[in-house]
Amino acid sequence: MATPAPDSVRRSRHADERRGKHQGADAHDNFARGFQALGELALNGVQVSARATDLVSGRELFSIDDHVVMPSAGIGTILLLVEVAAKLRDADFGMYTLLDRTAADSVGGSGIWQHLQAPSLPVADLAALVGASNDNLATNVLIRAVGLDAVRDRAELLGLTRSALLDRVRDKRGPDDAPHLSVGCAKELTWLLTALARGEIVDAEASERVLGWLSLNSDLSMVASAFGLDPHAHRTGDHGLLLVNKTGADAGVRSEIGIVRGPRAGVTYAVSMSFADTGVTSRLAVLDGMRQVGLDLLEYVH
């Protein structure tokens, strides 16, 4: 796991990035607002990793330590959804295959299945719950059904070496458990989203399924808070904006990846923060920094 750079090194690096990335940039390509916000967070001890690329050309729009492996909470379940979509081609694992929840799968935190009476749900419904609300119980049932090793093998097959789903969801992590649910690298994750948008992950049908599940996400509290969309109804676009995103939240972790399309352009993005979650002020500062990146992305695509 990468560790934060010393303050002096971090301060120099981020100052250089802010100066270098915007020389000669036009108004729409100027990501100075996000750079400044993330740079200030880094100077205050927040570990920051971010990247954005143009969806069509693949051109890098901005990056900050996009090679660093960061804890990413629920972001890693996108790899679970990819494996589920691939496995739907198997005769014994269809969209309507019912999966039971067990006591071993039980977990608190995010999601609504834990509050429902249904003891079993179809595979496709469980994937939709993971996409819509990072449903922890649905995540654990799907992991048990497809196998964590299969998810890891799929990530390796895709060429992902710095992004992984490490474990099932747990209420508490002990010394023998993986330290995080997942880790991710912004450079790899933006590549993954671009490949999904192009129908290149497994095949076009599987890619479309994964994007469909992600389009249900109702968490617009981070980068996507800048887009002004209805958290519960944005699948068909609004004011020319179309969003597909995945978020992850844990103690001291806020992470989001996404694709946002507008009248002018489309982008893929990934922003992850690791910070000392000592109070509401520190958390709100991180969320505000992510929103500033979102405002820059909005300016680029709209």
TrEMBL record:
InterPro entries: Beta-lactam/transpept-like, Beta-lactam_cat, Beta-lactam_class-A. Coiled coil: none annotated. Residues 1-26 are annotated as: Disordered. One of its GO terms (molecular function) is hydrolase activity. Residues 52-273 form the Beta-lactamase class A catalytic domain. Residues 8-26 have a biased composition (Basic and acidic residues). Pfam families: Beta-lactamase2. It comes from the Bacteria. Keywords: Hydrolase. This is Serine hydrolase.
